[in-house]
Write a structure and sequence with these properties.
The chain has 752 residues and is mainly β. It is built from five helices and 44 strands. The protein folds into two domains: 3-60, no CATH class; 71-751, Maltoporin, Chain A, CATH 2.40.170. The strands form ten sheets. The protein has a 22-stranded antiparallel barrel.
Length: 752
């Protein structure tokens, strides 16, 4: 292979030798140029050959100082790369379905909660619990539970909290089993939120204020200050409150802050740190119910909880510290550590059988995590290898309990169609923990992406996870007044996972790929569920065995193609996939108990996903996706489950967000979200055909006008036609999670 070919292959990483800058970006452009030159010089030294480099061109594009560093230039809806450095190639060259919602797409949509953004994406549905979404953000990706597969900046984020978007650069959704990257879980995929980072190349301050229907108000601040050539800090702040549209007095009150800093004494070395704080004080909408007589959702239910009783409070305090060190000659060392605490407390009341029924709970999570990656990007002989050697450590401690509710004015009768939301008089008290879980995990992995030629790349990875599981449950009263004695459960185990694949790129702008990947789920892996087997907690068989359970194993095959068009500003993707989950641990008769059947189930999901992101024309930008899937229970200890589809699973789903820039100042667009019907039931237990949620299509509109370079306005109208639609149902249909009614907001933004 010639040195010229080697240089061409190096360009397949996505590095563009044409840099573009705006007024104050000389430092950024110079730094990037030096970095690129340094990387190429490293390759030249390694090869000990001489080569002529192309001319570096610097052009003006008007890109904003606080622009998303991961997005494709001049294509705000298209991300070029994901933030996780272990994905060493551009998204267009990565053999996996990856959907990225950029900061621009998030802002245009007008959606401010992570759950609202994700639930609109193809192949993703919401899970729900008692009293609606009281378990915090809960997602089902490609039919598989993913509430523990949430990451922030590449580290697991296990807390049961409500997540806001005010401090995010982009949201990354990696579809399919990926335990090589993510560790345990990630059967259907994983979600990574990428936070805004301090930078040393520019000062800026952006303030936003929004007002709207349903007493909506929202205020944010984003400011980056360069303190020296080596040091900068950035602050993002949030305050917001609003009633749930058409469901008041159910309401949301949120505040949050992200403080980040960077210290870069050398071009090759930098230290990053951030502190994240969030606090929510909500009155959760308990939802509506399915009418047992008709089998239809009873939308006439107007009960939204009791003043002074119903609440949901979540909080987070999370500190992260890390460094990135370019050791030279294609070698890079990265490390990040995180210490965090999250809390989730709730009391939810529903009007049921003429009376008032309450659900309550609290969870507190303390965790420590560390991840270290060593990347070696070199030519070995005539073949380029990008090797990653890494390890992770995590310690999660989760305590959980409930509340005692005392009603002073006797048993309450409640008409859900004409409710009195101020009827309750009494007191509440937080009880001691009834479950205490500590889960420690130590992991090691190695990955390699091998560039064989300009047309062929192969990749593979292997990971081993060793964990220690220790769960204590206090004496408690079960159904029917049965006393469940205190118990302790502890075991340890380990598992291997891997991924392999090949990318063939015979065309200038497109490729085809084939990939294989696996994942593992441990017995009791959902930390919030303790010993409730049906909710992902620890399961035991009839003989009391639990440690003997093998990890659930999932395998995915994916065949796809990706096309990078229009000067890399439009990405088209298509993939067919099949995920098979073996050794499924199944719940028993009572979802709240530990009773279950170990490694007796098997299910499968297969389908096709299509995607488009970027600039369709010079003025039209879009992000469009669609998923058509089928699910089936293949094996079960209960023959009645076999052949059933998965619960809270939409066979067809689609989302399209389009923006048209009519003039340099004025742009407008809309969002269409579609989901086919779904059925209730527990994860991996098979859907209940008697509990059906109808499909829906929801339309949103938005428009923005820039008056000056500093000042602009954005208007959002959600659910234009004010349709009633339902995104999830509790297993029995007694609680149905309702989508927001029509609402509107106007947001002003000023940039200093």
């Amino acid at each position: 292979m010639t040195q010229t070919n080697r240089t061409a292959l190096a360009g397949k990483t996505g590095t563009d030798l044409t840099l573009r800058k705006s007024g104050g970006h000389h430092v950024m452009a110079t730094s990037l140029a030096l970095a690129i030159s340094g990387a190429m010089i490293g390759h030249l030294h390694a090869a000990e050959e001489e080569v002529n480099l192309d001319t570096l061109v610097v052009e003006d594009s008007g890109i904003q100082a606080e622009a998303n560093p991961y997005a494709e230039e001049a294509a705000p809806y298209k991300a070029r790369v994901v933030s996780d450095s272990r994905h060493t190639r551009d998204i267009a060259d990565t053999p996996q379905t990856i959907t990225v919602i950029t900061k621009s797409a998030i802002e245009d949509s007008g959606k401010t909660e992570l759950k609202d953004i994700l639930s609109a994406q193809p192949g993703i549905t919401l899970g729900t619990g008692e009293g609606g979404n009281s378990f915090g953000d809960r997602y089902i990706i490609r039919g598989y539970e993913a509430r523990s597969d949430i990451y922030t900046d590449g580290l697991r984020d296990p807390g049961l909290i409500t997540r806001e978007t005010f401090a995010l650069e982009q949201i990354e959704i990696a579809k399919g089993p990926s335990s090589t990257f993510a560790g345990r879980g990630s059967t259907g995929g994983a979600v990574n939120s990428v936070t805004k980072k301090a930078n040393i190349w520019d000062d800026f301050t952006t303030v936003e204020g929004g007002l709207g229907t349903d007493e909506f108000q929202r205020y944010t601040l984003d400011t980056n200050k360069v303190l020296s050539d080596e040091l900068a800090i950035r602050f993002n702040g949030l305050y917001t409150e609003a009633e749930v549209p058409d469901r008041g007095p159910a309401e949301k009150r949120r505040e949050g802050a992200l403080i980040s800093g960077v210290y870069q004494p050398l071009d090759e070395f930098k230290v990053l740190a951030d502190y994240y704080y969030s606090n929510s004080d909500d009155r959760t909408d308990p939802g509506v119910a399915i009418n047992r007589a008709t089998g239809e959702v009873d939308d006439d239910i107007k009960y939204v909880g009791q003043s002074g009783l119903d609440f949901q409070k979540t909080s987070a305090d999370i500190f992260t510290l890390g460094f990135e060190w370019e050791l030279g000659d294609g070698v890079k060392l990265e490390n990040k550590s995180r210490v965090g605490n999250t809390q989730n407390d709730y009391i939810i009341s529903i009007a049921q059988s003429g009376g008032l029924r309450t659900f309550s709970g609290w969870q507190e999570n303390d965790y420590i995590g560390n991840q270290t990656n060593l990347t070696i990007d070199k030519f070995w002989g005539d073949v380029r290898h990008t090797v990653i050697i890494g390890g992770e450590y995590a310690n999660e401690k989760t305590d959980g309990g409930n509340y005692t509710v005392t009603t002073d004015n006797g048993p309450l009768t409640m008409d859900p169609y004409n409710p009195d939301n101020n009827a309750w008089v009494g007191s509440t008290s937080r009880n001691d923990a009834i479950s205490e879980l500590e889960l420690q995990t130590l992991s090691a992995y190695v990955m390699d992406t091998i560039t064989l030629s300009e047309d062929w790349e192969v990749f593979g990875g292997l990971r081993y996870d060793q964990f220690d599981y220790d769960l204590y449950t206090a004496e408690r009263t079960g159904r029917g007044g049965v006393i469940i004695p205190e118990a302790s459960y502890d075991y340890n185990d380990g598992f291997w996972n891997g991924h392999m694949g090949v990318v063939y790129s015979p065309w200038e702008h497109g490729n085809v790929y084939l990939s294989w990947s696996t994942s593992s789920n441990i017995n009791g892996g959902e930390a919030d569920a303790a010993a409730s087997c049906g909710y992902g907690g620890l399961c035991t068989d009839d003989a009391g065995n639990y440690a003997q359970a093998e990890p659930e194993q999932s395998t995915n095959w994916e065949l796809g193609t990706k096309w990078n068009l229009l000067d890399h500003r439009l990405l088209l993707t298509a993939a067919v996939f099949q995920t098979t989950k073996d050794d499924v641990i199944e719940e028993g008769v009572d979802s709240y108990s530990t009773g279950g059947s170990l490694n007796t189930g098997k299910n499968r999901v297969h389908g096709v996903e299509l995607g488009l992101a970027g600039n369709i024309t010079d003025k039209l930008s879009g992000q469009i996706g669609a998923a058509i899937m089928n699910s089936e229970t293949l094996e079960s200890y209960d023959p009645a489950n076999e052949g059933l589809p998965k619960a809270n699973f939409a066979e067809k789903s689609a989302n399209a967000q389009l923006r048209y820039q009519l003039t340099p100042a004025f742009g407008f667009g809309g969002v269409v979200t579609y989901s086919s019907e779904m059925f209730g039931g527990q994860p991996d237990a098979g859907a209940n055909g008697n509990i059906e949620l109808e499909g829906y299509t929801v339309y949103d509109l938005f428009a923005s006008y820039r008056f000056t370079e500093q000042f602009d306005l954005r208007a959002n109208l959600q659910n234009v036609f004010d349709d009633d639609y339902y995104t999830a149902t509790y297993r029995g249909g007694s609680i149905v999670y309702k989508g927001d009614a029509r609402n509107a907001q106007l947001t002003a933004r000023y940039k200093f």
